[in-house]
Design goal:
homodimer, alpha+beta, OB fold (Dihydrolipoamide Acetyltransferase, E2P), eight-stranded mixed beta sheet
Chain lengths: ~450, ~450
Amino acid sequence: MQTIPTTTAVKPPLIRTTEVSAHVGEIVQLQGWLHNLRRLGGVSFLVLRDGWGTVQAVTEQEAALLPLVENELNTETVITLEGLVASVPQAPGGIELHQPRITVITPVREPLPVVISKREVNASLPLMLDHAVVVNRHPTRRSVFRLGAGVMAAFREALAQRGFTEVQTPKIVASATESGANVFKIDYFGRPAYLAQSPQFYKQIMVGVFQGVYEVAPVFRAEPHDTTRHINEYVSLDVEFGFIENHFTVMALLRDVLAHIFNRLVESYNPELSLLNAKLPTVPAAIPHLHFTEAKELVFQLHCKNLQGVDERNEPDLSPQEERWLGEWAQKEHNSDFLFVTGYPMSKRPFYTHPDPARPAYSNSFDLLFRGTELVTGGQRLHRYEDYLAALSKANLPTAPFETYLEAFRYGMPPHGGFAIGSERLLMQLLGTPNVRLTTLFPRDLNRLTP
Amino acid sequence: MQTIPTTTAVKPPLIRTTEVSAHVGEIVQLQGWLHNLRRLGGVSFLVLRDGWGTVQAVTEQEAALLPLVENELNTETVITLEGLVASVPQAPGGIELHQPRITVITPVREPLPVVISKREVNASLPLMLDHAVVVNRHPTRRSVFRLGAGVMAAFREALAQRGFTEVQTPKIVASATESGANVFKIDYFGRPAYLAQSPQFYKQIMVGVFQGVYEVAPVFRAEPHDTTRHINEYVSLDVEFGFIENHFTVMALLRDVLAHIFNRLVESYNPELSLLNAKLPTVPAAIPHLHFTEAKELVFQLHCKNLQGVDERNEPDLSPQEERWLGEWAQKEHNSDFLFVTGYPMSKRPFYTHPDPARPAYSNSFDLLFRGTELVTGGQRLHRYEDYLAALSKANLPTAPFETYLEAFRYGMPPHGGFAIGSERLLMQLLGTPNVRLTTLFPRDLNRLTP
């Protein structure tokens, strides 16, 4: 049935690169960027990139390239490309355009600051970040951010299916409440105000309204860290819900949300995952869990000799090395990329954390380790008004800045809890990226405010 | 088939208020807040509210209320309620719980600062806003915000279906670029930085990556307005896409997105729309449009005598009164709640606006009026690097603060455009709410930073 249509006054259909394979034998029209142009012994290979993929056009006719050549145009020139779709097994994707006709929409004459027409971006991290405006156009780079969109969509979908309601809570707040030091200060019409470090207080308040809520929004941390894992503005995936039994109810939901996210990525983002060689984890039906004290003891049993004689069992936190060891243990013993560590000491958790009723020095909280690194923090919160007054007093915090937050508890809150996932951190660990700045669209750090 | 089951050691199923009607004749268990308790001549009516709705329980047994009465508990006490589901035509929703058994989860003893157990919230605006933490629990109040969640979800769905990609762009920016005056200043590790007024520059940049993008995120406006229509932080629904012909391509997409949003609300949010008596508009297949100059002339023809002799045809903008008149005209002449006004004077639009090639004093931009008030602004943007240099020069703006933004245009951008919808403003106009603060979860204005 492959009859070759003749070109008529009727314009060929305008399609996307991802639709080309459905049009073999037809003349089609595409719009996009000149991604690459190679000329090998009389044959020219032109790659057009649009918002979704790339397609290669091949010609032996030098004249076909005239619109590009006569003006010495560079890659990233915006063009319309017409051509006949041919099935060519050895071509990328098994498809090529023949008899190309090029029309220039927006010419580019200057060479790019970073070459983005090769299979990989070959540039230093600072150069990539300085020129993220163009570097993010590269197929591997934009795949990262398309997966980011997929993570957000799947997160919302998992929670909407369970009857949770989306909220968008204020980012400008009156007091540097949750932990005084790490907030950015704003000049709010001559008064001081702050950027919210997290939607923690508001998502708890909203449990009183909707029972279960989620939020996908930026959070701001004025932490003067300069590490590969910290940025000062990131997208937080937040959940909070009521009528839980304890933190294990929260952990069960987190398990299901993560499983939904990874399933969705596999279903809908296969091209991006392949391009990035991503190894997606299987989320076990029940993620193994260890109490903090068990985890400490386990690490000591397994690795005490590696610790240069220092017994860290009494440290109230896990070191990154300990987390890696626990990750290896979970892999070996449970064949799991994931491990919950529960019951962190109350001394290391914020004032609103619910203690373990049986062992009040430990909390009803958890961290989720993913491949040996902390990915999610969550837990049960206090819900009784009098418990908040006692907790603030114990933490030597005044009640006045918390007045509106406390109103939620004064007027009836159920046992509740939740968790927060850093979206860029999740992508970083999922893709094995060495620096969270590479899974952030336009990162903000100690030294970087642009682009 | 209505046999009354006997209570056994097996706990009755825990269900939501919205599921009760499917359990007539069964004993069920619900968890939520004591929304209301009325005692009328020996009969007590108890209303339980959970995150999704309310259900009424009725009893003549004083003893059933003992857990509430003996401790003098108030509304908003968190309870578990067991009861036998009965079909009672005269009850709210046609359903009642009989033989209620109440267990207190979290007691509330203090009277509420604002009564939220009646059909309406009867309080002044400041009182409602001061106590939004509890007032937002009221069924009418939370319906507003559940519709807000519906608007966001439907907006994203409309764009995802069309191949657009979601982005989350930085809110902390290096320079007060788009219009210098109205930005909040931040102390960023000792350096000045600003809160983004809009994702305008970043969404344009991202057209170079994904071709079509959308974002749902907070924007920050340091405008010292004190009106019923302005707040200083709101949720902006942003769209930008490439390969458009002109602003009419953008208007066509906007029309379809709005139609999708309203259809979704009708499909999925009927209880909320009914409770709020919302009159949803029909979006015409083609929304009528007038050029700015035609709109001015039309208003003059229809209403010049109302203007106390002042001829406003040469004013470069439409007054709120003129917008109302145009809204009435669209309703009368086109039976449309919507009217596009296109081609606003370039002098009133930001530097990146694309001029009308045929009449360069006017722009390829538009406002969408909804029921006589501006709801959406959008248009075509410049896309050639040299046009940006000329536009910045004409506006007496330096190029340095725009360096990374300009990089997008230097390296190839197609004709593109987009629009932005204020989510709270949309809800306000849709619901006929007198003040945008009432469609904002926790509003921020000149005087208000809490709750």
